[in-house]
Amino acid sequence: GENVEQHPSTLSVQEGDSAVIKCTYSDSASNYFPWYKQELGKRPQLIIDIRSNVGEKKDQRIAVTLNKTAKHFSLHITETQPEDSAVYFCAASTGANNLFFGTGTRLTVIP
Amino acid sequence: KAGVTQTPRYLIKTRGQQVTLSCSPISGHRSVSWYQQTPGQGLQFLFEYFSETQRNKGNFPGRFSGRQFSNSRSEMNVSTLELGDSALYLCASSLPSGKNEQYFGPGTRLTVT
Predict the structure, then answer these.
(1) What's chain B's Rg over C-alpha atoms?
(2) What is the pLDDT of residue B97?
(3) Beta-carbon-side half-sphere exposure of residue B97 (alpha carbons within 13 Å)
(4) Closest by Cβ to B55, choosing from A32, A96, A102
(5) Does B68 reach chain A within 8 Å, measured CB to CB?
(6) From the CB of residue A17, how many other CB atoms can be counted at a distance below 10 Å?
(7) What is the mean pLDDT of chain A?
(8) What is the pLDDT of residue A54?
(9) Which of A98, A100, A105 best tests the B interface by mutation, with the highest count of B CBs <10 A?
């Protein structure tokens, strides 16, 4: 089955700096890659996703890049704010509604 | 539109008992997936239901089962509870069109003592 690895497990940045979280996947059939943000005690929230026919996608301060050849994808958050502090999960799917998640990155934005 | 809802939000059970959790998807969403979240294992896929049929299944023992009703509401059942079943159980709903965007409910926190 699919195996998704996520790095780093923890990340601290100064407010205003950028944060980058990286994931790799093993199944070349995976074609959908969402990112979720989970604040303490809350549900995971879909923040951005990318499909395998696209190399990059942006939404305001958030961007995701995908390298199908290397089987890795990354989340980039620019101009970080304290409210960006949360655990971020990457995931991969072959197209069915079963997501394989990474182990999460705890992002702390220091004011 | 109302979001995904789950009941109950918290549950305490004893080893050996069974439990049933409920999930109501976003209106119009016909696919419901269930996930288990633990500090040690992270988020793991349990199963997915679409049109009252289990369409995908993860690597969990047969003690974990589910079903879906004609109104797309779904239930999952865990029989013969073990201490290791303590977790946050999340369901997620999505459209059946293959767009794959899944929206999560708040989860049910199950504690097995």
Answers:
(1) 13
(2) 59
(3) 5
(4) A96
(5) no
(6) 13
(7) 95
(8) 80
(9) A98
Q: Per-residue pLDDT averaged across B10-31, rounded? A: 96
Query: Is residue B20 a contact partner of residue B5, using CB atoms and an 8 Å limit?
Result: no
Q: Dihedral of CA B74/B67/B103/B11: which sign?
A: positive
Of A32, A36, A45, which has the smallest distance from its Cβ to B100's Cβ?
A32
User: Measured between alpha carbons, how far is residue B38 from residues A103, A104, B43, B112 in Å?
Assistant: 10, 12, 7, 13
Asked whether the beta carbons of A111 and A63 are under 8 A apart, the reply is no
Q: What is the pLDDT of residues A46-97, one digit of tens each?
A: 999 999 888 999 999 999 999 999 999 999 999 999 999 999 999 999 877 8
User: What are the chain B neighbours of A33 within 8 Å (beta carbons)?
Assistant: none
Average pLDDT over residues B13-41: 95
**Confidence at residue B96, expressed as pLDDT on a 0 to 100 scale:** 67
Q: Which has more confidence, A41 or B75?
A: B75
